[in-house]
Amino acid sequence: MYKKFVLLALAVPFFLTGCWDKKDPEDRAFIITLGADAAENGCHFTFAPANIETGEAEIYAAESETLSGAVAQVDTYTSRKTDLGQLKTVILGEGLLQDSARLDALLGELERSQAVSEKVMLLAADSAVACVEKAMKEDSKTGLFLWDFYKNTAEEVAVTKGIDLDTFLTERTERDGNG
């Protein structure tokens, strides 16, 4: 009986390992900036990952009704898994801001996401795609933190005001859906 207990006690740890689904940091695309524009079939998402390698930084794009669908779509054509845990900025395009149903759907998905911080900065632009591409050309080696980009170009922009996701969602709730 004692031998069976010892054998069972030694075998149990082999079945309790927690590393079976691990993903190395080198195998992840840490998205720093997300651009979202309105499209015919939902939204056009532009993902700007941190450039952890030398060379040209790449931009991922996908068109989907939901952010999770766009992430899944990007994961199918890249070898790295899309990770929104380091997301710093979300740029909302003018067309998306004018479409309240799509905007509400995207904001709801960002709010419910376990990976996205409530302190992510929300920015508005005429075209989120163009804004992300321009910022990548300006600073592709440091990981693309667009809030600094906007602060440094304040005189070129009519209004420069920062607002995080949590504050924006709170204000929208208090104002019956207007932000």
Features:
7 strands; 179 residues; alpha/beta
Description:
The chain has 179 residues and is of the alpha/beta class. It has one domain: Nucleotidyltransferase, domain 5. Helix content is 39%, strand content 22%. The protein contains seven helices and seven strands; from the N terminus they run αβββαββααβααβα. The protein has helices spanning 2-15, 67-76, 94-98, 100-112, 128-138, 146-152, 165-174, and strands spanning 28-39, 42-49, 60-64, 81-83, 89-93, 121-125, 163-164. Strands 1, 2, 3, 4, 5, 6 and 7 form a seven-stranded mixed sheet that branches. A hairpin with a 2-residue loop joins strand 1 and strand 2 (42-49). The longest helix is centred in the first third of the chain and has 14 residues, at 2-15. It is elongated, with a radius of gyration of 21 Å. The relative contact order is 0.15.
Nutshell version of this structure?
The protein is an alpha/beta fold and 179 residues long. The chain contains 7 helices and 7 strands. The protein has one domain: 2-Layer Sandwich (Nucleotidyltransferase, domain 5), CATH 3.30.420.
List the helices and strands and how they pair.
Elements lengths: L1 H14 L12 E12 L2 E8 L10 E5 L2 H10 L4 E3 L5 E5 H5 L1 H13 L8 E5 L2 H11 L7 H7 L10 E2 H10 L5
Question: How large a portion of the residues is in β-strands, by DSSP E?
Answer: 15-25%
- Largest beta-sheet characterization: 7 strands, mixed
Total individual domains: 1
| Mean residue pLDDT | 78
Residue ranges: pLDDT <50 for 5 or more in a row?
none
CATH second-level architecture = 2-Layer Sandwich
Multimeric state: single chain
Order of helices and strands: HEEEHEEHHEHHEH
Count of DSSP-assigned helices: 7
Shape call: elongated
The chain-level structural class is alpha/beta
Q: What is the CATH level 1 assignment?
A: Alpha Beta
> Percent range for helical residues?
25-40%
Number of strands: 7
CATH fold topology: Nucleotidyltransferase, domain 5
Question: What is the C-alpha radius of gyration, as a whole number of Å?
Answer: 21 Å
